[in-house]
Amino acid sequence: MTTVPFGVRLAAAVDARGPLCAGIDPHPALLEAWGLGVDAAGVERFARTAAEALGQVCSVVKPQSAFFERFGSAGVATLERTVADLRAAGALVLLDVKRGDIGSTSQAYADAYLDPAAPLAVDAVTVSPFLGFGSLEPFVTTARRHGGGLFVLARTSNPEAPQVQAAVREGRSVAATVLDELRALNADAAPHGSFGAVVGATIDGADAAAGESLDIGGPLLAPGVGAQGGTLEDVRRIFGAAAPAVLPASSREILAAGPDVAALRAAAVAVGEPFRALRDGTAPR
Ligand SMILES: O=c1ccn([C@@H]2O[C@H](COP(=O)(O)O)[C@@H](O)[C@H]2O)c(=O)[nH]1
Question: Catalytic center at which residues (predicted)?
Answer without folding.
Answer: 98
